[in-house]
Amino acid sequence: RPGSSAPGAVSGPGPSADSRVSPAGKAQQGLTERYRVGSLLGRGGFGSVFAATRLSDGAPVAIKRVPRNRIRHWGELPDGTSAPLEVVLLDKVSTGFPGVVQLLEWLELPNNVVLVMERPEHSEDLLHFIRAQGFLSEEVARELFRQVLEAVRHCTSCGVLHRDLKPENILVDLATGQAKLIDFGCGTHLQDTAYTRFAGTPSYSPLEWNRFGWYYGEAATVWSLGIVLHQMVCGQHPFPKGRNISWGQLSLPQRLSQECQDVLKRCLSMQPLARPSLEELFSEPWLQVSCLAKRRMKADVPALEVLSVCFSSTVKAGPSPSGVGT
């Protein structure tokens, strides 16, 4: 966390990025004097993300470079420093919670703002993870979905609304099975009243936004979570491009358990008030302790090894390029 010593080490071999460096803001050293910048990991509407190494200790990090003229919203850090809203939100959630990418520091350069974040080396985004297998078994999906749900709950407890929940913004560490939420570029402060502006990916926007031009943070989040879960267990978006999402019956594969179908139908309810709250989701029968959770409590076994043992599906672990918040 900028200007602090909050915990939160980088996953993977080699030196960790746990040791925080100088306070955020106007850097005393140039970017190239402190980091060795490597390959491009991803590019989005708000900036580009590069793999990098911190020269002081060799820690792997991700560097997001955002042109100043693309920064639309600014906020204030606890110490009164003016900062881009994305930095403010990341500062709020960077408490060492493992399911959310940690901001290590940020730098102001003449034409750019640079965010330095942790970088799990052996990870890939959830979209590629799903595509590699076609779709995920319910047991694997349950474990990952529970982790994503916990990450979202952490964000809301910090007063942050992510607003761009989708498989591309969830990293899966192939060495540990840890899911990690990334990219807060579309995020905002959490509020109890309705939002009348949307930022995020249109195909994940809630039905009420498309119909009426407003949405509530929690109900919209649950809608997006429903789409993510559908992609996990079905291998595709529930509402392909051009398909009308105002229909009332969600067509689901018969192979899915009734408990899993119930979660999907509730999250993707056309009525915002009929969707479960985040806390209610944790109580869903489908999300109760799984084979994986029981095995991990008994022994320190790598998550993906347990997945293959419990569910008779082998997941090959290995390094894969991944962006951290483009």
From TrEMBL:
Keywords: ATP-binding, Kinase, Nucleotide-binding, Phosphoprotein, Serine/threonine-protein kinase, Transferase. It catalyses: L-threonyl-[protein] + ATP = O-phospho-L-threonyl-[protein] + ADP + H(+); L-seryl-[protein] + ATP = O-phospho-L-seryl-[protein] + ADP + H(+). Its EC number is 2.7.11.1. It is an enzyme of class 2 (transferase). GO terms for cellular component: cytoplasm. GO terms for molecular function: ATP binding; protein serine kinase activity; protein serine/threonine kinase activity. Coiled coil: none annotated. Residues 1-30 are annotated as: Disordered. Belongs to the protein kinase superfamily. CAMK Ser/Thr protein kinase family. PIM subfamily. Proto-oncogene with serine/threonine kinase activity involved in cell survival and cell proliferation. This is Serine/threonine-protein kinase. The lineage of its organism: Eukaryota, Metazoa, Chordata, Craniata, Vertebrata.
